[in-house]
């Protein structure tokens, strides 16, 4: 009985300290709720100021990434459409925003004043996605039936339409011309304007396209009715094996695609556009992806947002929400991350700037680890949420949290069992049960029931009778053992003689009677369950014999 064992109310936790996590801490910055489902999120940097564009059913509005007062909120602009908005896209400079609507109409919007600056020719089909070309001269659009249309920004006309996919085009991604170099040796062509872009669809395919505007020589044009011709050809078709939800560019020359429960990364510099990396084993459908030069963030319907390194593709950290993720947006330099949920709510997280600057390569890793403060997360399971990623031995350090000594532990260490009982009665039922379990294992349960006064005994009995409904099956044995010790060690006859009042005597009897009835009822239920189990086993054995015969 001389050993000391602290009471275990909660299981031990492990802390994870990681250098990567300490450099990628994101704190709450702003949030809000929309009445309709959020269709798109995009960060805009204009005149040195960062703002977030939020697209809902028929509204497009700008939001500050940090909370501001009501006076400054009046400066934020918004655009209301009579028709339902189907898709939006932001030009690279953040000045213009393309919007497609349910009535097959497409417009260009000035994001500073939220006024319409261009209306485009109506499409014959409803548009599902749009994007500005890299040279800002064209808008590329995709339809619900899988067609691609090219719109001229200067004139507003549809210059080209062609079938591209067998299902809805989910996303369009403009690509830089420097990624491709395919010279045209045709002598009749004096100039070629090439626009490269990628499309993804629910038909499991990602296609790389080259849209060419061919300007031909005068002598060749004289014998031809149309001197200017447009061509659209497929450069490569990539198989994703799932309906593709979104595509993006990372590290300048890598194409990343997400859909189903899989992420794939393709190298565009290689001739065959090989898949160089894949991340799988997500619990549900991956709905969105957003990237910059440092990280790419992935949103999933399993309520998680996972962040990865753009260069090494290593998992960095994740955020968990109470709803599925429909959209994610990252700003330049990873300063902000915006997340939109299924219920129309959105939140913005701001990156915490690291206090310690990057050191040179000559400094040893041990010195860097000593300088940097470890960032504590929840558990190892938190790190594993990245899916298909394992931490390196040099990357993380696992430490056991020091057990905090409570007042209850100190009393048990000094064998003050009755004082420990008084504190446990004031704390909670789990603490009380843990105390009984520990004292029973030490063989000291009878000590808390010995020579108690009437008030302390009746207080203990009332506490037990009040909380009997919280008892588990194994806890009734402890309660029965304690009641037995109270009846023997407390000398009930002496307590009854001390109190001549009939009410006090009846009070003790009623408490003990109520507890004993509860214990006996629970015991009967367990006996009935055992008998039922035996009967079921006999029936099963007879059924097996019948089947054999």
UniProtKB/TrEMBL annotation:
Gene3D superfamilies for the chain: YVTN repeat-like/Quinoprotein amine dehydrogenase
Where it sits in the cell: the answer is: Nucleus, Nucleolus
| InterPro entries associated with the record | WD40/YVTN_repeat-like_dom_sf, WD40_repeat_dom_sf, WD40_rpt
Q: What UniProt keywords are attached to this protein's entry?
A: Nucleus, Repeat, WD repeat
Gene Ontology CC annotations of this record? nucleolus
Task: Give the record's GO biological process terms.
Answer: positive regulation of transcription by RNA polymerase I; rRNA processing
Q: What is its main location?
A: nucleus
Q: What is this protein called?
A: WD repeat containing protein
What organism does the UniProt record list as the source? Cryptosporidium hominis
Tell me the lineage of the source organism: Eukaryota, Sar, Alveolata, Apicomplexa, Conoidasida
């Amino acid at each position: 009985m001389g050993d000391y064992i602290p009471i275990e109310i909660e299981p031990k936790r492990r802390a994870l300290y990681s250098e990567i996590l300490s450099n990628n801490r994101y704190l709450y910055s702003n949030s809000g709720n929309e009445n309709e489902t959020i269709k798109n999120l995009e960060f805009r940097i204009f005149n040195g100021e960062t703002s977030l564009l939020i697209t809902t059913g028929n509204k497009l509005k700008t939001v500050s990434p940090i909370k501001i007062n009501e006076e400054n909120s009046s400066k934020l602009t918004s655009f209301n459409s009579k028709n339902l908005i189907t898709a939006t896209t932001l030009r690279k400079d953040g000045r213009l925003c393309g919007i497609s609507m349910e009535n097959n109409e497409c417009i260009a919007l000035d994001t500073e004043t939220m006024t319409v600056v261009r209306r485009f020719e109506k499409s014959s089909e409803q548009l599902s996605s749009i994007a500005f070309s890299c040279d800002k001269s064209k808008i590329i659009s995709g339809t619900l039936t899988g067609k691609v249309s090219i719109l001229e920004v200067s004139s507003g006309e549809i210059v080209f339409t062609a079938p591209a996919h067998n299902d809805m085009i989910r996303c369009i991604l403009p690509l830089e011309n420097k990624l491709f170099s395919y010279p045209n040796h045709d002598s009749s062509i004096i100039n070629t304007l090439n626009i490269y872009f990628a499309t993804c669809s629910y038909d499991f395919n990602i296609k790389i396209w080259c849209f060419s505007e061919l300007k031909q020589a005068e002598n060749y044009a004289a014998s031809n009715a149309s001197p200017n011709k447009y061509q659209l050809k497929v450069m490569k078709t990539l198989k994703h094996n799932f309906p593709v939800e979104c595509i993006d560019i990372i590290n300048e020359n890598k194409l990343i695609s997400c859909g189903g429960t899989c992420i794939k990364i393709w190298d565009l510099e290689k001739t065959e556009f090989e898949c160089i990396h894949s991340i799988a084993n997500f619990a549900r459908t991956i709905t969105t992806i957003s990237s910059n030069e440092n990280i790419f963030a992935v949103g999933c319907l399993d309520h998680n947002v996972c962040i990865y390194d753009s260069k090494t593709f290593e998992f960095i950290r994740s955020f968990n929400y109470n709803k599925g993720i429909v959209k994610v947006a990252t700003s330049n330099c990873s300063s902000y991350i915006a997340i939109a949920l299924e219920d129309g709510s959105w939140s913005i997280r701001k990156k915490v700037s690291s206090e310690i600057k990057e050191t040179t390569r000559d400094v040893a890793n041990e010195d860097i680890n000593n300088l940097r403060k470890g960032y504590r997360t929840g558990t190892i399971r938190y790190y594993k949420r990245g899916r298909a990623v394992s931490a390196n031995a040099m990357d993380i350090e696992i430490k056991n949290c020091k057990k905090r000594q409570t007042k209850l532990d100190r009393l048990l260490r000094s064998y003050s069992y009755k004082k420990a009982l008084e504190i446990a009665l004031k704390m909670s039922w789990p603490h009380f049960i843990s105390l009984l379990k520990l004292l029973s294992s030490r063989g000291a349960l009878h000590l808390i029931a010995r020579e108690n006064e009437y008030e302390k005994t009746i207080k203990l009995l009332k506490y037990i009778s009040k909380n009997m409904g919280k008892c588990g099956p194994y806890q009734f044995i402890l309660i029965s053992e304690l009641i037995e010790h109270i009846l023997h060690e407390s000398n009930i006859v002496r307590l009854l003689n001390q109190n001549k009042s009939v009410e006090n005597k009846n009070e003790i009897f009623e408490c003990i009677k109520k507890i004993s009835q509860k214990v006996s009822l629970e015991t009967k239920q367990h006996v009935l369950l055992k008998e039922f189990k035996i009967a079921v086993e006999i029936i099963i054995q007879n059924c097996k014999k019948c089947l054999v015969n």
